[in-house]
Inverse folding.
């Protein structure tokens, strides 16, 4: 307060620039003395939600073309390595799963004229370990958006959870 009064007395140019010629006591008002209580922030904040932890995430890829499936599995592994996700296993089944359908060429007669159609489904599997929920969601959304035609993706997650309170370790 004393510094402002001294500045006011010694600087008439400042006083004239504001157009104020009355006493300094009318210009500078004391601060309010009422104190408002501060509420606890944690009472109103939503509870902190922890991220999920996954012990293992299994990707099962199915497709009708083994070359496309192999290329897509390489893409998935490269994306995992860029995100720092540990890939523990990557394998394919030796033989394709075959589904055969037999149809008659003519529905009315000639049972000896049959046609067989075969659908082969190839499989590839990838196991990922130790992922957080946000990393897993980001990774899965990225690889699902880049899923090629003729391929299907099945995801199985193994989540780590806290032991319930009623389970207690044995005492010796």
């Amino acid at each position: 307060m004393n510094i402002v009064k001294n500045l006011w007395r010694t600087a008439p140019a400042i006083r004239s620039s504001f157009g104020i010629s009355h006493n300094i006591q009318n210009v500078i008002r004391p601060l309010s003395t009422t104190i408002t209580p501060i509420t606890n922030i944690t009472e109103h904040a939503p509870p902190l939600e922890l991220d999920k932890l996954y012990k293992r995430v299994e990707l099962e890829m199915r497709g009708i073309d083994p070359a496309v499936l192999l290329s897509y599995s390489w893409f998935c592994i490269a994306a995992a390595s860029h995100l720092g996700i540990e890939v523990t296993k990557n394998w394919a089944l030796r033989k394709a799963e075959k589904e055969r359908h037999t149809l008659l060429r003519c529905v009315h007669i000639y049972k000896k004229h049959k046609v067989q159609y075969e659908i082969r489904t190839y499989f590839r599997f990838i196991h990922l370990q130790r992922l957080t929920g946000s990393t897993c969601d980001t990774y899965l959304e990225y690889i699902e958006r880049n899923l090629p035609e003729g391929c299907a993706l099945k995801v199985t997650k193994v989540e780590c959870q806290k032991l319930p309170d009623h389970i207690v370790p044995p005492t010796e």
